Each structure stands twice: as C-alpha cells, then as structure tokens.
Amino acid sequence: MLTRPWIDPRDVDWTDPLNPLRNPGWQQNNNPYVWAALKDPMLQALRQGKGIEPRLYVCPDPNSQTIPGNSTYDYEVPAEPNCWLFALNASGSGTDFLLQITDSVTGAKVFSQPTPMSLINSNLTGTSNRGKLFFLTTPHLFEPPSYPVVRLINTESTAKVCAVNLFTCVEYDTA
Amino acid sequence: MSPSASSSPANQPTYVEEPASYLFTITLTGSSHVDSIAVNIDRDSDFLLSGINGSSTGAYTLNFRLPSGRLYSSAEIKNTDFIGTANQPTSIGPPPIYRAGSVGPQMTLTDTSTSTNVVNILFTGIRRVRTT
Which residue of A136, B8, B107, B123 has the fewest C-beta atoms within 10 A of its own C-beta? Predict the structure, then answer.
C-alpha cells in the first residue's frame, strides 16, 4: 500500500458514477489500469464538464512535416472553443528539439522556457498508469477566443520531424 | 413507459460493470490506407473506453471515431506516439462511452512501414451490462 499514491479525499468527487472508489463492485484488481485512470482526480474533474469530449491535436499537421535546421516554427493549433489541455507528449526524427506551448490570448506558457523533447518523449513511459501521456499538474483551459500555440525549435543543422501531441478535451455546453 | 415513470428512481435501470477489452486486428499492406473500420460493440452492454495498447510489426498512423461520430485526433497520429504497452495502456480521458450495438471506435489507419504490417490494438475499459 505504501507504493500507492495518496489522494486527498477532498479531491475526489464521490457523486461521480464512474469513480471506482465509490463503486464497491469495481476493484483495482479487476483491471488496475482502468481503475487508476478512472480514479484520477484530474480526469474526475474533467468528467464533470458539460458535454465533454476528448480531443487529440497533432502538431504540426501532418506529423511527418519537417522543420528546417536551426529554425523556429510556430503552429497555431486549430482547437475548438473551451479546450482543456491536460497532457502531452512529443517525438522527432532528430536527437532532440525544444518546444513551448503558449496561450494565444493570455500569453501563459506551459514551460518557463523552451523544454527539450527528451523530457516528454513518447518513447518513454509517461505519467504512472497513463501510458504515453505526460500529465500536466493541472489542466489548462483555453477559453475563447484563445487557442494553443506550439513553438517548435529545431536545434539541429538539418531538417527534422518535430512532433508534439496535445491531449485535450472540449467542453461543449458551458451555459 | 412514460417519460415521467422512467425518471423515477424505482424504475431506473441497474447495471453490472465488468472489465472488458475489444481486440482489433488488421494486416496492412505496404503504404496502404483503410478508413472507418468498425470495432463492433456487443449488443448486451455499453463500453467505456479508458485505455489503448497494442503491437505491430511496423510503423503506422491511426485515428478513430468517438461515440459522437467525431474523429478523436485532428490528424492521424503515429503509433509510437499513442499506442501504449500491455503494462502501460495509454489513458483515454475523459473516457467516452460507446453504446451497445454501435460500430464502436471506427479505425482509420495508414501504413508507414512500406511492407506488410500486422497490427493488433486492444481497447480496454469497462463493460456496462444492463440487468433490469
């Protein structure tokens, strides 16, 4: 039990019908990965959104697009309104590149400075029990007319593929 | 049954939840593209998709449809960026619920290995069986 992450009960929505912690018939032993995903406080919070639907944005589009050597490329993500960014990962054909994600309206940045792809490399295991996803510590809402801007910086001298994948969900009914 | 009767607590349907996995298998030929391949959901239960893992003999890109019919991804994503492993399935969240008897997460795949590519994808989640 000591290896299990502690979750503050105040962070758990006990009215959520998908919450396995409130369902006595659903135990971790049934399927630990489903159990872990469903009891995640962040996903529980996102499930409470109205008309929520997951979305994945591949940046740039297509993901096989190359970025010229020693150059910076800004990709304006065609995100739908009320988009919640909660996880990401990245990959590339070179050894590494730098990336940054910025809110187009507020200017808020996910990283304090452009961050190496190697830190969120999809070849690595992401956040525990989330597969290839690297979860943010808290989801970021891109409120209309805001959208994410992904900055890709190819630090190598030749053209390379620099791909970032944004795992989001869209809240349709915000009334 | 009238709408008012169906909304009373006494008449609410009851469900049993069980672990469930749907296996999708396809053999892609070199650089081939397939579109909207159904992953049929059993008629006796809804399916809540919470994770994806799989294996393949080569590289490919993929996309799939949500219960609403919308595509999950803005563009096809590389399998190496998305498909998890058996001990670390990629978390799908918030988990979409595919209705019983639906066509499920219809798959779109493109082979990028330029050779024969055997693709196995396991959709893991919860089966919600209606008991009353």
Answer: B8
